[in-house]
Amino acid sequence: MGTPTRRPRVCVLALMPLLTVTIEAASRPGDTEVHVHAGGQGPWLARMAHSLGVDVVLCGPFGGENGALVEHLVREEGIVVRATPGRGTGAYVHDRREGDRDELASVRPVTLDRHELDDLYSATLVEALEADVLVLTGDDAGLVPASFLGRIAGDARAAGITVVSDLSGDQAAAVADVEGTILKMSHSELAEGGFASGTEVEELVEGARGLLRRGAAVVMVSRADEPSLAVTGDRVVEVSVPDVSPADHRGAGDSMTAGISVGLARGDALEDALRLGAAAGVLNATRHGLGTGGGDDVDRLAGHVTVTPRD
């Protein structure tokens, strides 16, 4: 008997998993629905990657009642969880009954101490070394120093693992300094982080090239409703998706990163991985669930994504 073929494997570092509670208007007038999910950039990205047919392991700190619930919810989706100790996982409650998100309450996660950082680093490194792609997601609560992400990216790259990041600010800079990394950022993150002088195409391209000079191999720039840009050492391409009516833009960028990561884990050419990422992002935008809308639909939609070289 031959050796069973191993499925592609993606490791996702989730620095800030969240418990999310969303109140929605039901289809019957006057009724209300309450949805409880695992949220945050890491779980959203992992959810989309898993739906695209690869094995996914999510590494992150989980603590307190919120952490126990989030860990359980992620496992219920078929995603492997490598949980490390944390003293308090964050949460939010959103009311969408009027259409827009109205935040009713939120709890910030607790900053990790040295021992918790060490545990998270060790667990992530071990899981990354057994994956095809390591995806780094960030946090907006200062849970870990930027150097933590630079170190884990450097160790993974030294072992030949593909590293994809969806970060901003100092965290993005730390990963850009590692040779051969793949960065996904939004146009506003490039400008606000001081990497680009503005949000015009040429300014974004020059900003992306600056990140390439630091060490990155590819910089993918999402631009809201405009075609995304992908910049490498010798090419600049625009990635265009079909026009759709969005239900919720939140999570689309995370889904784009997930699609790119899955494509690379499958061994797709970069251009095909970009198509898959763009398709995952736009399909997510048509849905209310963050990080949802995967499977065969994304692969089919990728056939309608165009990649055009810029002069």
Automatic annotation (TrEMBL):
<feature type="signal peptide">
    <location>
        <begin position="1"/>
        <end position="25"/>
    </location>
</feature>
<comment type="similarity">
    <text>Belongs to the carbohydrate kinase PfkB family.</text>
</comment>
<dbReference type="InterPro" id="IPR011611">
    <property type="entry name" value="PfkB_dom"/>
</dbReference>
<feature type="domain" description="Carbohydrate kinase PfkB">
    <location>
        <begin position="32"/>
        <end position="292"/>
    </location>
</feature>
<keyword id="KW-0418">Kinase</keyword>
<dbReference type="GO" id="GO:0005524">
    <property type="term" value="F:ATP binding"/>
</dbReference>
<dbReference type="GO" id="GO:0016773">
    <property type="term" value="F:phosphotransferase activity, alcohol group as acceptor"/>
</dbReference>
<keyword id="KW-0067">ATP-binding</keyword>
<dbReference type="InterPro" id="IPR029056">
    <property type="entry name" value="Ribokinase-like"/>
</dbReference>
<keyword id="KW-0547">Nucleotide-binding</keyword>
<dbReference type="InterPro" id="IPR017583">
    <property type="entry name" value="Tagatose/fructose_Pkinase"/>
</dbReference>
<keyword id="KW-0808">Transferase</keyword>
<keyword id="KW-0732">Signal</keyword>
<dbReference type="GO" id="GO:0016301">
    <property type="term" value="F:kinase activity"/>
</dbReference>
<dbReference type="GO" id="GO:0005975">
    <property type="term" value="P:carbohydrate metabolic process"/>
</dbReference>
<protein>
    <submittedName>
        <fullName>Phosphofructokinase</fullName>
    </submittedName>
</protein>
<dbReference type="Pfam" id="PF00294">
    <property type="entry name" value="PfkB"/>
</dbReference>
